Amino acid sequence: MATPSKTQFDRSVKMAQAYYGLVPEIIKVVNKHNPAVAQIYIAAMELMEEGELPDDEREAVILTVSRYNDCHYCARTHAALGYAAGLSKESIEAINQGRLPADERLKAVVQATRLMLDKEGWLNDDDLAQLEKRGITRMHLYEINALISLKTLSNYINHVAKTKIDEGLDQLFPIMAEINQDGWAEVPDETNV
To answer: ∠ CA 6-7-12 to the nearest 5 degrees?
Structure first.
C-alpha cells in the first residue's frame, strides 16, 4: 500500500485553506489516509457553489442528507454554515430534528431530498410531476443528487473516523449555543484515525 506523498498532502492542505480558510477536521482525517479523496471532495463542494440552488437551499439539502445519515460532524458544521447562508435557527432545528421547515420553498427542497434518499433516486412520473408543481425541476433534482453524493461521502467518512467537531466552531458561530441540538447524533470524544 502506497503512502500518500508530501506533495499530495500539501496540495490538499492548500486547497482546503483556499476554499475554507482553514483545514477542517474531516479534511485532516481524509488527507492523512488518502489526499486524492480530500481533493475530490473540496473541488466538488466548490463547484456546487456554481449550481442553481441558492446558498440557503444548498445548505438545507446538506443538512437533510446529514440528518438522514445521522452524521454528527456535518449536522453541526452545516448548521453553522446554513445559518451563515441565511437559514433561520428554526429551520436548522427542524431539519436536524427530522421535521420540516416552515418556509414553503425550503420545505419543498427538504421533501425532494428526502424523497430522493428514500427512493434511492427511483422517482416515478407522479413524483416528478408533484415536485415540478412545487418548483423543483430536474435541474434542481440533479443538483440535489450531486449534493446527496458528496454529503454521503463525507457522512460515511465521519462515521468511520468518528471525526471530532472542529475546535472553535461555537466561538466562530455563536448561534450554535442557541440552537437546540436535542435528537442530533452524538459527538465522539476523539477522532478514530
So the answer is: 95
Tell me the C-alpha distance between 37 and 132, whole Å.
34
User: What is the per-residue pLDDT across 123-169, written as a single tens digit (0 to 9) for each?
Assistant: 999 999 999 999 999 999 999 999 999 999 999 999 999 999 888 88
Q: What is the pTM of this model?
A: 0.91
Report the alpha-carbon distance of residue 76 to residue 73 in Å, rounded: 6
**Dihedral angle over CA of 85, 175, 147, 45, nearest 10:** 70
CA atoms of 148 and 161, how far apart (whole Å): 20
**Grid cell of 129 as nine digits:** 410531476
How far apart CA 104 and CA 82 sit, in angstroms, is: 17
Distance in angstroms (rounded) separating the CA atoms of residues 22 and 36: 18
Q: Where are the alpha helices (DSSP H) in the chain?
A: 6-20, 25-33, 35-48, 55-68, 72-84, 89-96, 104-118, 125-133, 138-161, 169-172
For the stretch 7-51, pLDDT in tens is: 888 999 999 999 988 899 999 999 999 999 999 999 999 999 999
Going 184 to 67 to 38 to 23, the CA torsion angle's sign is negative
Helix axes 35-48, 6-20, angle to 10 degrees: 20
Q: Cβ distance 74 to 95 under 8 Å?
A: no
